[in-house]
Design goal:
There is one protein chain. This protein has one helix and 32 strands. The protein has 367 residues and is mainly β. The chain has four domains: 92 residues, no CATH class; 74 residues, no CATH class; 35 residues, no CATH class; 95 residues. The protein starts with 13 loop residues before the first strand and ends with a strand.
Length: 367
């Protein structure tokens, strides 16, 4: 059946701690506590106040502000007192200025001891937010002043100010927040148990989605052999049993079996026709040249001392004499005699940076 009369209180009534021991006939303002915990009121009309057995009228005999009560007349020493706060919810229409602020229901900012829950329309379920179990310092995030665009994410500048941003590389299904650190973007990842954690935009164990620069060692692990970039050695290292394969049909393979280097498949050199008489060893190791007059050859850019440079010259000789660099040493210390109108093959080797070349020749092929 319907209830007739004033509705029952929906909250918990609270009896404040006794403040009468502080009465001295001159003090008018006193702090209100419940079990020694400061407890604020929203309005003086929420209180029942008995002073010396006489009920006091709100906003006439006393006023309130936060967790403090102020009497119009200072209570005399020894006067008895009890104060009770009604548990009924206070609506904005019962507040004199029709607004509810933190100072009227607590003091300062709102603080929730557990989670904050927002119920759905029928009140059967809710969504919520909850702080981590422990935090090392207080943190407030300031939201943007306006809504963002579709597919944008909420990012922080590292000092608590949030704004909207874009990231084309964000993994599907993750909310994205930037840490504000240069070159470092992290995501607020929601795990299956609704636990949130920061994750790198690109997992440090995976390749970048597009481009990117590696600044340390990089390893490529195979089923039987590995390849790695060794930063300290400044070298790409092909370890035992790993192979370099070149060509669609693996025409050329280079690898090591643990005790020796192996090159398999056919190797072809491109014949480089030269117009000048200088053979630049940086460009080829097989040269072709046709001469029709006196010609003096020179060699340039051999490998450094301790590394061999091996190259060949296919010389078509229609007329003229041929002069070689003075650093070339021939069999028997004598340069070969060439017949004009023939083609000749020369091979040269140096392993001291070009200080000395050893040469040999197959001469007088019919053109």
């Amino acid at each position: 059946m319907a209830y007739i009369g004033r509705q029952l209180a929906r909250g918990e009534n609270k009896l404040f701690d006794d403040i009468s021991s502080s009465f001295n006939g001159s003090t008018t303002a006193f702090n209100l506590t419940v079990s020694s915990v400061a407890t604020a009121t929203a309005t003086p009309y929420q209180l029942f106040v008995s002073l010396g057995g006489v009920m006091q009228k709100p906003n006439t005999d006393f006023t309130t502000a936060g967790n403090q009560i102020t009497f119009t007349t200072a209570p005399a020493a020894g006067l008895s007192c009890w104060i009770m706060m009604q548990g009924d919810a206070v609506t904005s229409t019962s507040v004199s200025d029709a607004s509810i602020t933190p100072s009227k229901i607590g003091a300062g900012d709102f603080a929730f001891p557990n989670d904050v829950r927002l119920k759905d329309s029928d009140g059967s379920h809710y969504v919520g937010f909850q702080a981590p179990t422990t935090v090392s310092t207080n943190k407030i995030w300031t939201l943007p002043a306006a809504d963002g665009s579709a597919n944008q994410y909420l990012k922080t500048n590292g000092s608590g100010t949030l704004s909207w941003g874009n990231d084309a590389n964000a993994p599907e299904g993750t909310a994205v927040l930037s840490t504000g650190e240069t070159g470092t973007t992290k995501y607020l990842r929601v795990d299956g148990d609704n636990t949130c954690s920061w994750q790198l935009a690109v997992d440090a164990t995976k390749m970048p989605l597009a481009g990117g620069t590696f600044t340390d060692d990089v390893a490529f692990t195979g089923a039987a052999g590995n390849i790695q970039w060794d930063k300290s050695d400044n070298a790409l290292e092909i370890l035992d049993s790993a192979k370099i394969k070149i060509g669609t049909g693996d025409d050329l393979q280079i690898h090591s079996d643990g005790s020796r280097g192996i090159i398999t498949g056919s190797v072809s050199n491109v014949a480089t026709a030269v117009s000048a008489l200088d053979l630049d060893l940086r460009t080829s190791n097989y040269f072709t040249k046709t001469i029709s007059g006196n010609s003096t050859f020179t060699f340039s850019n051999p490998a450094a001392s301790g590394t061999a440079s091996i190259f060949m010259l296919e010389l078509t000789h229609s007329s003229g004499t041929v002069t070689w660099p003075g650093t070339v040493k021939w069999n028997g210390d004598t340069a070969p005699t060439l017949t004009t109108g023939k083609t000749h093959l020369f091979m040269f080797v140096t392993d001291d940076g070009g200080s000395r070349y050893r040469g040999s020749a197959l001469v007088d092929y019919v053109n």
